[in-house]
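Hi team, as promised in this morning's meeting, here are the two structures we talked about. I've kept the exact order from the run log so nobody has to guess. The first one is mostly here for context; it's the second one we should focus on when we meet again. Sequence first, then the predicted structure tokens.
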Amino acid sequence: MQLEFLFRPRRQQPPDERPLQVAAQTVPLRFVRHPRARRYILRLDAGGIARVTVPRNGSFAEARTFTERQTAWLMRQLARQAAAPPGPHGWFAGTVIFFRGESVPLVVGQNGSVSTIRFADQAVPVADPAADLRTVVERHLWRLAACELPARVLELASPHALPVRRVTVRNQRSRWGSCSRRGTVSLNWRLVQTPPFVRDYLIFHELAHLRVMNHSSRFWQTVAGFCPDYQLAEQWLKSHGRQLR
């Protein structure tokens, strides 16, 4: 859920990030300036932090005023969070996860005196094989993504002479990736859990922004030129994307 509000350019002021008092709850407040945003956007993240996207020419003071007017909306979101079921379940021996688009079980075994988690062709040392394995496995997948994804971005960009200057791999919560005007491509580490054709589509999606920095029809024509079957990848994400988050 989010709220949007058209902005009017104002003189810049330092951000006032004092917590908001919403009924009996104190809500931390964070401002994030986004060069492509055209509106003030208020979100309440899973940790109960109110995050406000501020447009490039927007005012922190106006963003604060906008947020303070949304206490009723914040109260409703806080109530929904409190009533929501618990977060992601832990991962243990036998848990099935996605890896390169395949459903694979986590298998705990021994490599000499060292306990390991095995899935597909991967083996990850673990101190306590009976504990929740999710953090250990996700860190391994992130490291794997950090090794593989930058090289794949450059490989896909090269035939099209796309000016990639930097590639980062991040733990994005609501995006598969992003691309800046300066040529920085940021990708979600969870791309290593998707099939190769979905991974490549998501990379091409961000590379297309190096030619069109919006989601207009021209942008989607550019994507189709890079990745003619991109709609199949979109269908896979609609079916399985939530399981990766």
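And here is the second protein, the one for discussion:
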Amino acid sequence: MRDSWPRLRASDFPALRRGGLATLQLNLGYLCNLSCIHCHVDAGPHRTESMERATMELALRLAEHRTLATIDLTGGSPEMNPDFRWLVERARGLGLHVIDRCNPTIIEAPGYEWVAPFLAAQRVEVVASLPCHSAANVDEQRGHGVFEASIRALQRLNGLGYGDGRSGLVLDLIYNPNGAFLPPPQSPLEQDYKRLLGARFGIVFDRLFTLANMPIKRFGSWLISKGKFDEYMAVLRAAHRPENAAGVMCRTLISVDYQGYVYDCDFNQMLGLRLGGAAEPRHLRDLLDTPLDGMPIAVADQCYGCTAGQGSSCGGALR
């Protein structure tokens, strides 16, 4: 795999500083039942990294100590971590809002039949990847048969009350481009998704989040191999909107890797760019009594992916 970090390190991206911490995003490991071309984590079926329960306990201790509102679970497929259910139950017991960034095909995978009913029982917000409403585009990006499996999984979630607007069970979908270009405007695309998925498959959901592809890990390597890296970075830079910087997720979120080390965001985590650009690794245990408000945020050229166009974050478009 070609490393994009040397092309990102020297950057003129504007300086950023933290606001109040509200969300702890935990990467539970890189194991996934898919190997998607756009994956910025380089997750897949052969990865073995997995967060241990002791690290989860420390994360919950930090969330409680700092009275955080949300635990945001990602991967890989976070549900493939053997302690996923334990973590969710403990977090919900503390009154935390839990988000599961779910690859919906995991609901269809043998041995994971428990996922959908468990998420519903724990009233977990599901953010499900469906990078297009077209079967051809999804299968091109994620693999043959992924679209059909995703549709069946979303229908199963709907059957449990997700996305109906009355149950309180929130189902959001994620779109990302299948190439080196920016997402279209989020609001009209959401209406297209709702109309087409509803008419064809009877699927309902709450919101659509549009995410830009980040020029790192597997997607960054693909860009380099195709000779498109500089072209894509030029697109991001040309579309940079300074006003989007006010809403980027790194101002209120900390990303935690499977070993408990902390970063300003999930993308920086994948690049090994430490919290605040520190010279030494920082761990969850270091944050229990460390003031974070106003702390510098580590930036490099990948940050243009979050501020380009309508903006991009784990919660979708910023504008």
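Starting points for discussion:
The CA atoms of residues 78 and 282 lie 23 Å apart.
The chain has a mean pLDDT of 92.
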